[in-house]
């Protein structure tokens, strides 16, 4: 008999090494530097400063007052799944309620999809730069992550080399993760690009995990439904396609934490089990609020999108007039993505802008190494004048930086609100 060496618990890490190795959110790092300061104009998080519409809040209150404080079905209450199927079908190809799963936020929907599809060692290909959760989740599950970057253009926009992406998708690629309209760049897939990607993934057996949470925030006006092109428009029900959506952006419900998945029937049959072992279910009162939001979609979303279109154009027109600032109005999303000449360290620059100018932006490096040197500015502001005030602060701070002294910290008093 061979003795097995004793391994002391003291010699083992407290948590899995992959968790210990995860980077903390650099967006949060910048925001934490400015939290509690009333003089900071904050544009770092991806949410509007407008509260959820009153009918939506009222529906949640009514649900709580009616005593709906118990567990719900794993996949969501039937009324909401039916309403979501009707909503999705009104925008895209027909979808039945059996393909819909209600989740506790869009980020939960993404994680559930990755858990359902990815084994340790599987290859996951992600188009970047992108919201960091989409690249962290496969790594947490032990997948081999590959990145394919969009390319920054001289005019400040970003573009996809489609042929390069198609070549990168092989039979070894278990999942392609793609976010369009994209956070942070605003880049948006065209219908032709989607068709080429779908055909390639059909040929290789690759699943597409499409994060389309910004589809309603689309400003080109070249689609019949006003939404950005979706893989749901061109796919068959049994395609290896999972689409993630959320109530956060188009319904002003970021803090409610409610999302949903649209998936093939073969996958939907088992998704309830996975939800049970994650969150069990989304709260009923939140689902009632979502039902009210869908009932009010004609009053909520078009007004919001029109306002965000104004915000986008207002901010972009002012930023492009600043010497050394490079950006372009994006076709989708709620962000301006900009680069400032002379500042290669986006995290350092973002922290200095908070500290010295009272301006809160997100660092590009938070989204991918290739976005280093860029900043993300969320333009979803109820009051458009806040955007102009932010531009004024940026201009004032840049003017204070003498040539060759960009790396010298200098306090500049924030402009009054």
Describe this structure in words.
This protein has 417 residues and is α/β, with parallel strands linked by helices. The chain folds into two domains: 9-52 and 299-399, Aspartate Aminotransferase, domain 1 (Alpha-Beta Complex), CATH 3.90.1150.10; 70-295, Type I PLP-dependent aspartate aminotransferase-like (Major domain) (Aspartate Aminotransferase, domain 2, 3-Layer(aba) Sandwich), CATH 3.40.640.10. The protein has 13 helices and 15 strands. It has helices spanning 17-20, 26-34, 54-65, 78-91, 106-117, 133-140, 162-168, 191-204, 265-276, 284-295, 297-319, 346-357, 384-400, and strands spanning 41-42, 100-103, 123-128, 144-149, 151-152, 158-159, 173-179, 207-211, 241-246, 259-262, 325-326, 335-340, 359-360, 362-363, 374-378. The strands form four sheets. A seven-stranded mixed beta sheet has the order 2-10-9-8-7-3-4, sandwiched between helices. The protein has a four-stranded antiparallel beta sheet with strand order 11-12-15-14. The longest helix has 23 residues, at 297-319. The chain starts with 16 loop residues before the first helix and ends in a 17-residue tail after the last helix. The model is unreliable at 405-417 (pLDDT under 50).
